[in-house]
# Entry
Amino acid sequence: MIVIKTTKELQNYLNGQKRDGKTIGFVPTMGALHEGHLSLIKKSMAETDITVCSIFVNPTQFNNISDLEKYPIKSAEDFKLLAQQNCTVLFMPSVLEMYPNGPIKNKEDYGNITKVFEGEKRPGHFDGVITVVSLFLEIIKPNKTFFGQKDYQQCLVVKNLISKKFPEISLFIEPTLRNENGLALSSRNAHLLKNELTEAEAVSKALFSIKLNWGLNTIEQLVENARNIINEKKSLKIEYLNICNLNDLSVLSGNSSSYNEAVVLTAVFCGEVRLIDNLIVYK
Ligand code: PAF
# Structure
């Protein structure tokens, strides 16, 4: 695996590979890698000749400085995991390399999908994501890029960004990986205490209860039942839990049987740790 820290060096390398007819896959990450990230690397390795994984803790997508400061940095472990996967390139730019004029985020209008849920709770978050993903896609110009469904709203935003500004790039959205008890894998799980880790499993149980009863109850009943499953656990506090339209994230109501499919989106505090999860439900 080659480790590259500057844009110029990365572009020189990739231009050579592209001249030789090689296809490029890109997996953006903020490090603290787990099996979920590795599944994206594996997919990219299977789909393209050269896989570039970026590790960059992007300051412009944190609306809260203490969240940025607490973000886990595990460079040595990450390097080892990527090397084991035979990832071709690890791109680790500095903040100055990515933002030579300072960490400024672009403000482009992607409508409601950037304003609700994560957009509402973390103002400016998606402006930062759109800014950094655009920068990476402009630098790397990959054929294919790979994101995890765990961040459903982010995937939707990136899907819109790509269709508007990078239609030549194919976006792959890979399923969320879960532990044996259903908890969605996330870098933040490392911050959970042992009892919180067990209680956090109620989040996915709540989501799967909706999937199981889809078409049998009203949306309001499904949401209430799911909320009750989570509220039974002392360390959990729901920030939002809604059943939404898959494409515009408008909140659905009424008989679930009148919808062929939907996405359940939730954010739940487990102690101090904010977890997000989602599940697509269908008839
Ligand atoms: O999902 C993430 O880890 C980040 O939002 C991303 C896509 C790497 C952009 O910084």
Observations:
- Residues 28-30, 58, 61, 129, 132-133, 151, 154 surround pantoate (CB under 6 Å).
